[in-house]
Amino acid sequence: MTRKTSHFQRKEPILEKILQKIRFRKVFPFVKNGYKVLDIGCGYKGALLKILSSDIDKGVGVDFAVTKKIVAKNVKLVSQKNLKLPQNYFDLVTCLAVVEHLENPKALIAKAYGSLKKNGKLIITTPSPIAKPILEFLAFKLKVISKQEIKDHKKYYDKKELIDLLAFCGFKQRNIEIKYFTFGVNILAVSVK
User: What is the domain extent for residue 80?
Assistant: First the structure.
């Protein structure tokens, strides 16, 4: 499936917003006043950056399509086709529920790595392999999460695969912390440059 729309560009099933909030809560402890934050896969409305806008210096959100409306004075949303990331600039890069959708996640993670300042953090969330049948049931049978999102999944990562991906892109293994959440269905990776 080739994506043409961003998450939340159209109306989404009821559980999508709840799952989004769970992912956002994983990011909040890592945000500090004055941070410059890049959200890769920000969704159509840049919801995470809008929430963080009063605490950060600057936010940049990237996705397939983004609203032209101003989300906040210090937040800029850009289409991925216009993506030119500054080097060594961001304090925090988030990539929530994105890597599982990518044909070539190495290219994206390498760009994220390059855009981080020294000691900057990359936060990734992604479903684990045990999530596949659960997510498919919720999307295709119960219809309470997005069919488009689940159909678009290319890979479900386990802990080792995610560490290997991050290490390949420049992160030292000792600076990568992996935790499972939502009963092991999702993985949180926090990597320090």
Answer: 14-192
Query: How many structural domains are present in the chain?
Result: 1
What distance in Å separates the CA atoms of residue 164 and residue 30, rounded to the nearest whole number?
23
Residue 107, domain member (yes or no)? yes
pLDDT tens digits for 120-140? 999 999 999 999 999 999 999
CATH number of the domain within which 75 lies: 3.40.50.150
This prediction has a pTM of 0.93
Q: What does the block give as tokens for 40?
A: 């890769």
Q: Which of 16, 4, 3, 12 is nearest to 135 (CA)?
A: 16
Listed residue (22, 17, 23, 51) closest to 37, CA to CA: 51
